[in-house]
Write a structure and sequence with these properties.
Oligomer: single chain
Number of helices: 24
Shape: elongated
Radius of gyration: 63 Å
Structural class: alpha/beta
Number of strands: 71
Largest sheet: 47 strands, mixed
Distance between the termini: 163 Å
Helix content: 10-25%
């Protein structure tokens, strides 16, 4: 045969050693594998060295090879290429061998079917080809070639042509049942024995399991239904393809069993063995069972192919059964040698017939696939199924053992066990160890026996176990499930249930919504192993309080469901058992849909069982509370007694009192979480944790009650036990922990008594480390059940906790309430003793102490942070009471302030001298010095020689237009005035004006800084503005004096000496002017003109009528020298002093009223004095600037007795000097860009001087713009007033008020600090430090030298004082807000000084009054400094003149 020429890759010694070991194992597996006396290492080494088995017998010799042309009718030679060109019928076994190619051309048929088992062997070293639509028909076909191809439509067919099966095999069924033949799978049998299980009836049996990897047996013939005619289908043949390289199958390779049709069983499939490096194609390889009355079993296929894909398809399913369509023949086996995988697939043909999986081969299989409704069985009493990869079931069934022999034990080892729509059945015990166990709509059913040695099964999935889509693991005995990864029951219908269930060693267990863990089963059969409960025991089983650490399944222990050594447990489904134990777990979370229940899983009887009378009336069972009495027509029976220890309960609940009556109610079971050694770290409950008693279900029992017991009314079962060893509990709003009694029958049964719930806290933190051990928002129920009809309700059970340490009380070891302390161990609320109140301050409350208060006295704290321990005073009150209380503190403070004020006054007198003058200073006879106004220069300075010369050369004074502000700076008018046109060049003058105006303009940032400072600190804004004005004036002066070349002047001398132009300004820097002087080389006799020639003269006021810059007439040497030509200097000085004294009372916003007084003074006093010298003055306003600013000043002109008074519109009615000449010009002019003032020169002697402007009189004052702003309101506090004298007294009072102000500021800040530090910051920084600056500003003003400097600093002090009112207002607001927010807070008792209550306004109000008084005193102080001659305000002309 072709096989004989294949080289052997294994040495004869190794083969012999393998045969010996296998023979020993199969001959006595138990003695070899289980014996402990055999030393594997030494014996195997002995066999390897000393024993050489005999060589196997040589195969039978092949018949001589046929020739290509003569024997086969082909063309060519077998050593080159042999082509079969025509059909060939063979009548005997044929062997063909050659070194060339063998080709069967298309549409050629080679037939060797004249007898069963006809063999055709082809052995060529070249290629083999079976052409299109060609066929080979034989009982056996062997092919050895380099490459082989089976073209489309080609067929190698051994169907139903198999020879005799191996001897001693039972593949062919006996009898006339028409059963199918068996080989790889059992044949089906449609005629069943009702006394047997379906699994116990089959046709032909399977055989040749040992040749799984290289099958070479014929299939078996099917049975018949007739004694006369054998209708059974023949068995499948054999096919062996040994291809060195490429095998291409586009046709069919068949070894199917023959069909038996309606009267015979189908034959079983045969054998197909293929070796190749690579196989491709779209054909079909089949060793399926034949169809018939009963289907035949599938055959065996094995492939040893390095590279193979899903095509060609390979089938080994069983044949269809016409007599019983639901029971096809069993599937055969498909083995792949390269991946070492075994596949059992039945092509979705339903069957009850098994495919036998016997001893698994060595080396181990990698994968086992049971698919498409295949049904496999491991029938041995003890068997190990071990694969290196996965066992996958897809719509298949895998059975271990036989249903009649429940004492079998099985082991299953694999990397993965995957189940989809499949079933695993175990008859006996199963030890499973996989890394991953996945179930999808599948079941694992374990039927354990009553033998203690085999009643426990163990399932281990080290990495992952997942149940999905109603998957079930069921055991009617004990079951252990363990792993090191995760166990997930994902959804509804997923369940693990057993009579005794242990889940252990997982990292996490997730019981999804609708999933179930049961232990024990609620509905059991008679063969189930029933756990024994300790219903009548008074003692608590030790394993409940101190469970063993090994987590093994032990039927002698009390619990029926245990979850042991699992880190995290998530319950969204149902966990139910009689005695449930969670041991050595870290956390258990019961979500809203989750239930952990032992409800109704306790005892039917028990220690506290109720009483059931003959007439059926029953009372409730008792446990934590007595059972309710059962009553009917006034007759009552007592309920069950209360039993157990409330401080450490572990008893089962009792039933209604009759174990023999299946319809009686049962008590609740026992639920234990944790242990004293290993408490549960966290228990989170949003769902239910229940151990309730069972309620009698009247809807089900009413029919029975009416038949057997006319007054049937058993009571409810008592609640069981919930024993929790915990470190932390979180009971959500929907969470329930319940051990309530069950309800009795509505016909008269008593309610069951409540059970017991105990929280045994472990390591309760105390002191600073205390943390609440429980957060309870849900319900904890231990109430008794309701009684029916006239019966009573059961008594409530108990809820208890471990005795709490000091400072804690109650079931959940909570902190004792504030104001109590607990210095003993226990849980009763009465152990928290009340603290005494006699040492508690009025504004104090008892403080909460973490971990509770363990000893008296109890600590307290003030009701607010604004109060200070220990007396709960504010900072201000502490200061007040330190000095003896409010009255004594006030007297001491007042005395101290007066003393300090006197010290300051004395120091001021010593430092700066006396400022007060008792009256106007007397003027020495002949002296020209006037002391009536301190700002006027002395006559000695005026009469100096150089100044006289300067005044004599003066030609004209040109005023700048504008108030010199950032928005309206100074500027000069273009085109020279008429008075200087003869001494300047007009173009050069205009250029000069442009340059000066450019220098006078401010930069944008200067105004921006001014705005910012105005917002933050307004007094500083005035200083900033004055500094920038001074810098601007200095810059213009420097330009005119040294930088400008005086090119606009006609005088060569003036240009050479830079002396023709001079810039000056009023002291308030709001009015500036340029004086034009002669150079001395003009040679003009009419220059400069005399005074009478310059009338009318305009003198502008400096200032703007504000507090800091009042209106004033600036009098300098030039004006004095000029006016001395008409008016004596002393008279002019007196006029200027009186006018300035009156002008300082004028303020913006009140110009109409104040200018009215000025006009009256000019008419009554000034003009009366000046009229003697034929001079008249009028108040005038001049044309406003573009921004609306208007200059005010005087219009001076000469008068004659016969001349009418000048009209108010002086451009048309200007006064005429009696000494006017035709060449005279006006002296001073105000001119803007459009020429505000013009001089009109009349022709001849009668020409009149005219200038543009408006004289203000009583009639036209109404034309003044009456603008009023914030300054109007402030003018009531800060204004320029008349002097009052008594300068020392005023200074002393101001000193006192400064100290009072500072003291009130400090007290106010201290009061606000008592309220809030934020309030202090608000008062200090809105405006920044505005509330504290007035004190140093006032001290600086009082201690400054010189009246002028003192007056300026006093004005700044007044400004800061009025600005601080904003800070005072902020203090009012802060105090009011605090008062309103704290008004609802009740002060415990009256306080003698309560500055945070209704008296919060005292200090801010006192400060406000103090600042208002200071403002008035400062006004007087400034007036005393600036006006030392009070006669200037006299309305008596004679007194004014005499002074």
């Amino acid at each position: 045969m072709a096989i004989s020429v294949l080289p052997c890759a294994i040495s004869p010694k190794v083969i012999g050693l393998t045969y010996v070991i296998l023979a020993l194992i199969f001959s006595s597996p138990s003695s070899i594998l289980c014996s402990g006396d055999w030393d594997f290492d030494s014996d195997i080494l002995l066999l390897h060295q000393d024993y050489t088995p005999p060589a196997p017998p040589p195969p039978p010799p092949h018949p001589p090879s046929l020739s290509c042309e003569s024997d086969l009718g082909g063309i060519g030679s077998l050593d080159t290429t042999c082509e079969i060109v025509s059909d060939l019928n063979l009548t005997e076994n044929v062997y063909v061998e050659g070194k060339g190619n063998f080709v069967i051309l298309p549409n050629v048929k080679v037939n060797c079917s004249s007898f069963s088992g006809c063999e055709l062997a082809i052995n060529v070293t070249g290629n083999f080809s079976l052409g299109v639509n060609s066929s080979i028909i034989s009982g056996t076909f062997q092919l050895v070639a380099d490459n082989a191809s089976f073209d489309n439509g080609s067929t190698v067919n051994t169907t139903s042509l198999g020879g005799s099966p191996p001897p001693h095999s039972s593949g062919t069924p006996q009898g006339l049942d028409g059963a199918g033949g068996g080989y790889g799978g059992r044949g089906a049998a449609c005629l069943t024995d009702k006394s047997k299980l379906r699994e116990d009836v089959w046709g032909g049996d399977a055989y040749s399991w040992s040749e799984l990897d290289k099958p070479w047996d014929y299939g078996s013939r099917g049975g018949t239904t007739s004694r006369e005619v054998d209708y059974g289908g023949g068995g499948g043949g054999r096919v062996m393809l040994l291809i060195s390289k490429l095998l291409e199958v586009n046709g069919c390779v068949l070894a199917d069993g023959g069909d038996g049709y309606a009267k015979g069983g189908g034959g079983s499939g045969g054998s197909i063995y293929i070796e190749a490096s690579k196989m491709i194609g779209i054909g079909r390889i089949s060793a399926c069972g034949g169809s018939g009355f009963s289907g035949g079993g599938g055959g065996r296929v094995s492939v040893d192919i390095f590279s193979r894909h899903d095509e060609p398809t390979i089938s080994v399913h069983g044949g269809s059964s016409h007599g019983c369509p639901e029971n096809a023949g069993a599937a055969g086996t498909f083995y792949e040698k390269v991946p070492r995988s075994l596949t059992v697939s039945n092509h979705n043909k339903s069957t009850y017939t098994d495919t036998l999986l016997l001893a698994f081969p060595q080396p181990f299989l990698t994968n086992v696939y049971i698919r498409n409704q295949a049904k496999a069985v491991v029938p041995l009493l003890w068997s190990r199924v071990q694969v290196q990869g996965q066992i996958s079931l897809s719509s298949g069934v895998l059975s271990f053992g036989l249903a009649h022999y429940l004492t079998s034990e099985f082991e299953l080892f694999a990397e993965e066990l995957l189940m989809s729509d499949s079933i695993i059945r175990v008859f006996g015990a199963l030890r499973m160890s996989v890394k991953m166990f996945l179930m999808l709509n599948s079941k694992m059913l374990i039927y354990g026996g009553r033998d203690e040695t085999v009643e426990t099964s163990l399932l281990e999935a080290s990495n992952l176990m997942v149940l999905r889509e109603s998957s079930l693991i069921h055991s009617n005995a004990s079951l252990g499930v363990q792993g090191q990864g995760s166990l997930n029951l994902t959804g509804p219908g997923d369940a693990i249930e057993a009579q005794r269930l242990v889940l252990s060693l997982f990292y996490s267990i997730n019981i999804g919504p609708g999933s179930i863990l049961h232990g024990p089963l609620r509905n059991t059969t008679g063969d189930a192993v029933m756990p024994q409960l300790y219903c009548n025991s008074q003692n608590c089983p030790n394993e409940l309080l101190h469970p063993p650490e090994d987590c093994n399944v032990n039927s002698s222990l009390a619990f029926t469901l245990q979850i042991c050594r699992v880190e995290d447990i998530l319950v969204e489904g149902l966990v139910e058992g009689s005695v449930v134990l969670f041991h050595r777990a870290r956390s258990v979370s019961v979500l809203s849909s989750g239930i952990i229940s032992t409800t109704g899983m306790g005892c039917n009887g028990g220690i506290g069982q109720g009483i059931l009378q003959v007439n059926g009336l029953g009372s409730g069972g008792g446990h934590g509370g007595r059972g309710g009495m059962g009553c009917y027509n006034g007759s009552c029976i007592d309920g069950g007694v209360s039993y157990g220890d409330a401080n450490l309960p572990c008893e089962l609940g009792s039933g209604s009192g009759n174990d023999s009556l299946s319809m009686s109610s049962t008590g609740g079971g026992v639920l234990v979480m944790g242990s004293s050694e290993y408490p549960l770290l966290n228990l989170y409950v949003e769902g239910s944790v229940r151990a309730d008693g069972d309620s009698f279900r009247d809807g089900i029992q009413k029919k029975i009650a009416l038949i057997d017991y006319p007054y049937f009314g058993p009571g409810g079962g008592s609640g069981g036990t919930v024993l929790l060893f915990l470190r932390g509990l979180a009971l959500g709003e929907s969470g329930i922990i319940s051990s309530a009694g069950g309800n009795g029958s509505q016909l008269g049964g008593g309610g069951g008594g409540g059970g017991r719930i105990h929280f045994h806290w472990s390591d309760v933190p105390t002191g600073d480390t205390y943390w609440p051990v429980a957060t309870v928002n849900g319900n904890i129920l231990t109430g008794g059940g309701f009684g029916g009809n006239q019966s009573h309700m059961g008594e409530a059970g108990t809820v208890s906790g471990k005795a709490c340490p000091k400072g804690l009380y109650g079931t959940f070891c909570e902190e004792c309430p504030d104001g109590t302390y607990k210095n003993v161990t226990g849980s009763d609320r009465s152990l928290c003793f009340s603290c005494t109140n006699h040492e508690l301050p009025n504004r104090a409350v008892y403080v909460h102490v973490r971990g509770g208060i363990t000893e008296a006295p109890c600590p307290y704290k003030c009701v607010s942070d604004i109060y200070h321990m220990p007396h709960c005073y504010t900072a201000l009150e502490e200061l007040v009471y330190t000095f003896g209380g409010p009255w004594l503190f006030g007297l001491l403070l007042l005395g101290l302030l007066i003393l300090l004020a006197m010290v300051l006054s004395v120091a001021r007198v010593k430092f700066i001298g006396v400022d007060e003058f008792p009256g106007p200073a007397p003027t020495q006879q002949g002296s020209l010095i006037d002391h009536s106004f301190p700002f006027l220069e002395s006559l000695n300075e005026v009469l100096e020689t150089n100044r006289v010369e300067e005044s004599q050369s003066h030609v004209h004074r040109l005023y700048f237009i504008g108030p010199n502000t950032f928005s309206d700076p100074w500027h000069l008018p273009h085109s020279p005035p008429e008075q200087v046109r003869e001494i300047v060049y007009e173009d050069a003058f205009n250029t000069f004006v442009d340059e000066v105006n450019g220098l006078a303009a401010y930069q944008w940032w200067e105004g921006s800084v001014h705005i910012i400072i105005c917002i933050l600190a307004y007094p500083l804004a005035w200083s900033w503005q004055q500094w920038r004005r001074r810098m601007k004036l200095q810059r213009i002066r420097e330009f005119v004096r040294s930088e400008y070349d005086h090119a606009c002047l006609r005088s060569c001398r003036s240009r050479a000496l830079y002396e023709g132009l001079k810039v000056a300004a009023t002291p308030d820097l709001m009015l500036a002017y340029i004086d034009f002087f002669l150079g001395g080389d003009e040679k003009r006799s009419n220059l400069p003109p005399r005074l009478r020639q310059q009338f009318p003269i305009r003198l502008l006021f400096g200032g703007d009528g504000s507090y800091m810059a009042p209106f004033s007439l600036h009098n300098d040497n030039i004006i004095t020298s000029l006016m001395s030509q008409a008016v004596p200097p002393t008279t002019w000085y007196r006029f200027v002093a009186g006018l300035n004294a009156q002008l300082r009372l004028v303020r913006r916003g009140c110009l109409r009223a104040k200018f009215y007084l000025i006009i009256q003074w000019l008419e009554t006093v000034a003009n009366s004095a000046l009229g003697i010298y034929a001079v008249h003055v009028d108040l005038a306003s001049f044309q406003a600037t573009a921004n609306g600013y208007c200059h005010y000043g005087l219009l001076i002109y000469a008068v004659e007795e016969e001349t009418d008074h000048v009209s108010s519109e002086f451009p048309d009615g200007a006064p005429q000097d009696e000494q006017q000449s035709s060449s005279g010009t006006s002296f001073f002019s105000l001119k803007d860009e459009t020429g505000l003032v013009q001089s009109q020169r009349g022709s001849g002697h009668n020409s009149r001087q005219k200038a543009r402007g408006r004289i203000l009189d009583i009639n036209n004052l109404k034309v003044l713009d009456k603008k009023r702003g914030v300054s109007i309101a402030l003018s009531f506090l800060i204004r320029n007033s008349k002097p009052v004298g008594h300068q020392d007294l005023v200074g002393l009072v101001i000193s006192i008020l400064l100290l009072v102000d500072f003291s009130l500021v400090m007290l106010t800040l201290l009061q606000l600090y008592s309220l809030s530090l934020a309030d202090v910051f608000l008062v200090l920084f809105i405006l920044p430090l505005g509330i504290v600056i007035p004190f140093p500003a006032g001290i600086n003003a009082l201690f400054s030298h010189g009246p002028r400097r003192s007056a300026g600093l006093a004005r700044m002090y007044a400004f800061w004082n009025i600005t601080s009112l904003i800070n005072t207002g902020v203090a009012f607001v802060c105090g009011y807000v605090h008062y309103r927010t704290q008004s609802s807070r009740r002060l415990p008792n009256f306080q003698p000084l309560n500055l945070d209550g209704s008296e919060w306004w005292i200090f801010p109000f006192a400060l406000l009054v103090c600042k208002c008084v200071q403002s008035q005193l400062v006004n007087w102080h400034v007036a005393n400094l600036e006006i030392q001659d009070r006669s200037l305000y006299s309305k008596d002309f004679n007194l004014f003149e005499q002074s």
